[in-house]
Amino acid sequence: GLRPFVHIDVAAAQQGVSRFLELPPPWRYSKREGEHDMLGYSHLITDKPAVANFTEIISIRNVDPMAAMNPRRRGGHMQTVMRVYKRNDLDVALPSTSSGHAPTRVRAEEEPAGEEEDDDE
Asked: How would you classify residue 75: left for phi > 0, otherwise alpha for psi between -120 and 50, otherwise beta?
């Protein structure tokens, strides 16, 4: 069914991404560490500049403090610190609802082998 599954990697968690304002079910979240199959997730939150089989949908930018303090450097003070990716093979387009907004539909795979839902912050 429609079970979006978001992976928050170590770098994202260290930058302050938490589950504090998480969406209710059917959204699920994982902070599983170590090498494992990312294709079990519908979305990833990471600092990686690219992830195979995923498309960047959001980039979060911040001021680069070293560039901002350098008086010789004009502009370019912003740096991408985090990205949200969506798996390439997800269905996303549905007909508009009566409100005029197109709902988003995702088809997430089942959890990766050995994956337990992560309920802690």
From this structure: left
